[in-house]
Hints:
Strand content of chain A: under 5%
Oligomer: heterodimer
Helix content of chain B: 25-40%
Distance between the termini of chain A: 72 Å
Strand order of the largest sheet of chain B: 2-1-5-3-4
CATH topology of the largest domain in chain B: Fumarate Reductase Iron-sulfur Protein, Chain B, domain 2
CATH architecture of the largest domain in chain B: Orthogonal Bundle
Order of helices and strands of chain B: EEHEEEEEHHHHHHHH
Largest interface: A-B, 51 and 60 residues
CATH class of the largest domain in chain B: Mainly Alpha
Amino acid sequence: MSATAAGFPGSACTWRFWQTTIGKKAVMAVSGTILAAFILGHLAGNLQIFLGPDAFNGYAATLRHLPELLWPVRIVLLVSVIAHIWSSIQLAVTKSEARPTGYVKKRPAGSDYASRTMYWSGPIIAAFVIYHLMQFTFGVGGTPYHPLDAYGNVIQGFRVPAVALFYILSMALLCTHLRHGLWSMFQTLGFYHPRHTPKIKRLASVLALLIFFGFISIPIAVVLRVIPQVL
Amino acid sequence: MRLTFHIWRQPNRTSSGKMVRYESSNFNPDMSMLEALDVLNEELILRNEDPITFEHDCREGICGSCGFMINGLAHGPLPKTTVCQLTLRHFRDGEELFLEPWRAKAFPVLRDLMVDRSAFDRIISSGGYISVPAGSACDGNDILVPKPYSDRAMDAAACIGCGACVAACPNASASLFTGAKVSHLGLLPQGQPERNQRALRMVAQMNAEGFGQCTNIGECEAVCPKGIRLEVISRMNGDFIKASWSNRGQQSVSDGV
Lengths: 231, 257
């Protein structure tokens, strides 16, 4: 019964799985699913800004007063972000090594814009997330910040045109990223069905657009003075 | 019919190559792309120049020998067509065509438009088989296969290994090829006992050859002359993921756990 590590499901197996391109893609699919689920929840939370300062600040305070919920979620998200980025960096290296000499002429035949630009939209979204956290979580984004007034922070943040514009552009990229990513994760994890996959693709597009319009409605409402400034 | 060609010329594996311009009016619209190169080569030979090397065999679209990029598209602009079956009537008189070899680290250029696709052979030999007792042939209908399964297995088995999927993929991934081979055996009863090992070994070999990852963008499916679908890649992914966690290896089997 002396079992060698080779062949047994265990740490050696996990390591070998991670060493393959499919293993890394599976990690990207699972971490991407977690991040996408967070984005939907985050959108639902953010849209409460239309209910007025009391509702929105109350929601922010509720989150702060639930550290036993807040911190596990933050840790899971942080691990997912690191896993997603780390595997994408390793895969980008694999990709660049796989074709040392490029083509003089190359035309896309079957792919859409969203799928071809994942390696561009991803890093730009990451840069946005860093600024987003600096601005609304740590209060060092260069816009007025008060830790107990999330509502005012958003209003004053988006009154800066460059901030609102960067936010909207980043959401557009997030939309294209999710349009491909949300259906691609099924394909990566081994689920394809001629009847269901086209529906999953359509659902991914609908969700991506929903997320886009949902998020940009906030800076647009602020810029157009639909949401009043209270402080 | 007049055509201008820009063709990748490279004398051997190690030397560097370049695009060279050729022009001729001796083509006619009924010729295939390979016949056009034959005509061009005869002109080159008469001028005492080196003819252009390209791979070909059956010239009826079923052997998988031929293939190169035409204006940035693997096997040219016609869907589900190899270059040997692509006739010049699909191009305009006087059109400029850029012919380049498949580009991938795993497909080194041997000469001009010809690349070394031994990497595909090594992927096949790593797991693209079923082990059978080699005695007298068993009865043809010993193992019954439901028609929908045999149809899907045949769809995957239509892959001729031309390499267009790798050439078209921005990541130079061989996932469509490997997926087709994993699927065509994995869909049949004869392929079940070795299904896990096949997925593990073929994917490991595919990675070892230096092919890139699959990003599910569908360039391969669009250029495949045999219409192999992305579904085979998903099947390979599923088989590989399942095999990675359920694999017991050689050791535990002989231990009789």
